Amino acid sequence: MGGLETKAIVEINQAANQFQSSIVIQVGTRFIDVKSILGLSVTLFNNQAYKLDIHGPDEKEAIEVMKRIFEKHDLKLDRGQTYN
Q1: Sheet of 22-27, strands arranged across
Q2: CB proximity list for 19: less than 8 A, separation 6 or greater
Q3: What angle, rounded to 10 degrees, do the helices at 3-16 and 59-72 form?
Q4: By residue range, what is the domain housing residue 14?
Q5: pLDDT in tens, 49-84
Q6: Max avg pLDDT among 13-17, 37-41, 44-48
Q7: I need a labelling partner for 49 at 20 to 30 A (CA). Which of 26, 43, 56, 82 fits?
Q8: CATH code where residue 41 lies
Q9: Which residue, 32, 35, 46, is CA-closest to 74?
Q10: 36 occurs within a structural domain
C-alpha cells in the first residue's frame, strides 16, 4: 500500500469517527464500517467503485464530507449512489 492509500484511509477513518451516523461502504458483496481502520486498510483500492451507506442524526453533513474526501483521493463512488 502506497502513501496515497494510507493517507486516504486515515483521513476517511478520522472524518467518519467525528460523526454519530453509521457510515458503511459496500465493495462488491462486502460491507465495511468506515470507522474501522482495519476494515478500510484491507478494502480501499483506487481501481474499485464504492457505495456509501450513511444514516443517522448527522447524515447530511457526513455525506458531504465523505464525498469530498473520496473525490480528493480519486476514489470512485458508485454512480447509482443512494444515501439513507
Answers
A1: 30-33, 22-27, 49-55, 76-77
A2: 56, 58, 59, 61, 62, 65
A3: 170
A4: 3-77
A5: 889 999 999 999 999 999 999 999 988 898 655 555
A6: 13-17
A7: 56
A8: 3.30.1340.10
A9: 46
A10: yes
In whole numbers, what is the pLDDT of the chain averaged over residues? 86
Give me 83's grid cell: 444515501
Asked if residue 66 belongs to a domain, the reply is yes
Pairing of strands 22-27, 30-33: antiparallel
Amino acid at 13: N
Task: Quote the number of domains for the chain.
Answer: 1
**pLDDT single digits (tens) 62-71:** 999 999 999 9
Is residue 84 one of the residues assigned to a domain?
no
Residue in the structure block whose three cell numbers are 474526501 = 69
Question: Is residue 63 one of the residues assigned to a domain?
Answer: yes
